[in-house]
Fold these 2 entries.
Entry 1:
Amino acid sequence: MLDVSRAVVRARLAAGVAAAAAAALALAAPVAHAAAADTGDRTYLIKSIDIHQSEEWRSQVSGYPNRCRTWQFAEGRSNLGVAQQGTRTMRVQRLPFGGLVGTFDGSNWGLSELRRTLDWRSHSVPDVAGCSPCGPNSEYGQCSGAAPPDETARPRCAPPRGRGLIVLSLTDAGLSVGAVPNLDKELERCPEPPKAAPRGTMQWRLETVRFKEAPQTLARMGLYKEHTFRRETTVDRAGGCRRLRGVGFRSCVAYTVVVVVRRIG
């Protein structure tokens, strides 16, 4: 009788273990399926791309603004940007041998914008008493009183928007974003500053920026979630990003890249 009872208990325990295992497998199956699906290809909408570079600069010599000294003074601002709104999609594919690659659909072109200003002034010493060794008893003779007018120039440049080529790539190394503004026609409409006037240091191109964190960030994004990649850098010359005023040439160049991405598949 005892052996029969033990056999019944063992059978019931075995049945319970089997039922629990089956339930665990049933619960794990959707999770495993979701995890497997999550390793497949993904599709993202590039909602917006904004690449912008600006510079503020100032140049002055030690005599500025003394009336009896020769000096030049100049200051200027330059802005260059390329932007694109919601015209591209990015498909992220896992490669069989490991790693990933992004393929892009849609237009490569965005709108480019150029703005440039310059204020320049050149001053010469007037032939007047107190500024020149002239005078009634001077070997230089009498003062003529002549005060040559300052040379000035204020060229402004703000042509209509043009087109710029936006270059994107995605690999394991990150998401690279760059642009090539097409400025030939725009710069033709910009007046040339005087040859004697100093210029800013900004180049009329937009450097490529790489977001190294992009592959991991994109992999963690849920469906219909958005993420903004942003990078801001500055190039400070002679402390220009802290204070533009002072003797010499000072400049501050700011470079900003913003990419907004939304997962759509």
Note: Helices lie at 2-38, 184-188, 214-220.
Entry 2:
Amino acid sequence: MTRIINRLYIYYQLSTSVLFLALFARWAVLYPLVSGRFLPGGIHVFLISLICYATVGELLWSLKFRRVSGTLKSATLLKDANLLYFCLAMNHISDYDHSLVLKNISYSAFIIGLSLSQCYVHATQMFKRGEPLWFSGFLRRVYVYILLPVMHLSEFNLLLLNVQSSQSIESPVLDIVHKIVLVFFLPLACVAWRKAMV
């Protein structure tokens, strides 16, 4: 039974890593062809579906291996809650082909940062940790000092634009929730970044 669970875990990590790499490849093909103007129409549904698949799977595996108490203390829960909130905040836009929020350059920066960082994270989860090689140390530095800040800053900008847009005002309670998240977003992102540096 444990052998099947180990194989399923490796399959999940491999499939998630390949799908995030496919997200980056899809962006790299679409952006030169259609620019940021029509990019949401070709990539938004895939992005939201991939984030949901990756976060729900990661939470389930975390519950399997760390139990509830370990999952509640992990940085994985914070990252997954953040990405699920992003999906909920950005997916309520009914006409994402014409949304000004998703046509911003921050959307492309978010896709680049998210796809490459999550591809790296899920790919490294498949292998046992040994003594780091020069190349893996270089990849870790790129992940920590370039990809994570790009992802978090572009996500913050997208959430800020989402609050400012007229499409985000569906109910006053939802608007207050968005503003509260924006207040706590950067401090929590800095805490997550500091944990990633260790």
Note: The helical segments are 2-73, 75-91, 105-124, 134-164, 172-197.
